[in-house]
Amino acid sequence: MAVGSKELASIELDTFEDERLIDELKKAKEELFNLRFQSATGQLESHGRLRAVKRDIARIYTVIRERELGIRATPVVSEAPAKKPAAAKKSTKKSEADAPADAETSTDAASTVEKNTEEEAK
């Protein structure tokens, strides 16, 4: 990496989740604004930092766009996998009677499928 933050290397950006990438982008834009303000008022000591921050912003935008296009993989979240509800797979007569009126259409479709499979079995 030629110029830029050591902490925002493209290899490390691959491990960031989308939310963290957006947070890093906001931080970099705020820093660029502050650096430009310092430059305009004559208080900027490190002019090379402007270039580094611009490249960091471009690098983050590149990673985000590559993820949108499917070129770069989104990192896998290390949380516990969500459990599939077992009740949604099976439809019973008791649960159909207890279900609210809004859920009747989905349970009616499930009972129709069950009836069709029973008739095919006979």
Question: What labels describe this entry?
Answer:
122 residues; mainly alpha; 6 helices; 64% helix; elongated
What is shown here, in short?
With 122 residues, the chain is an all-alpha fold. The chain has helices at 10-13, 18-41, 48-69, 86-89, 93-98, 104-121. Helix 2 (18-41) packs antiparallel against helix 3 (48-69).
Q: Could you tell me the number of beta strands?
A: 0
Structural class: mainly alpha
Strand content: under 5%
| 3D shape | elongated
User: Ranges with pLDDT <50 over ≥5 residues?
Assistant: 102-107
Distance between the termini: 70 Å
Computed CA radius of gyration, to the nearest angstrom: 27 Å
From the structure provided, what is the oligomeric state, counting identical versus distinct chains? single chain
Describe the main β-sheet briefly.
none
Mean pLDDT: 76
Percent helix range? 55-70%
Structure annotation, total helices: 6
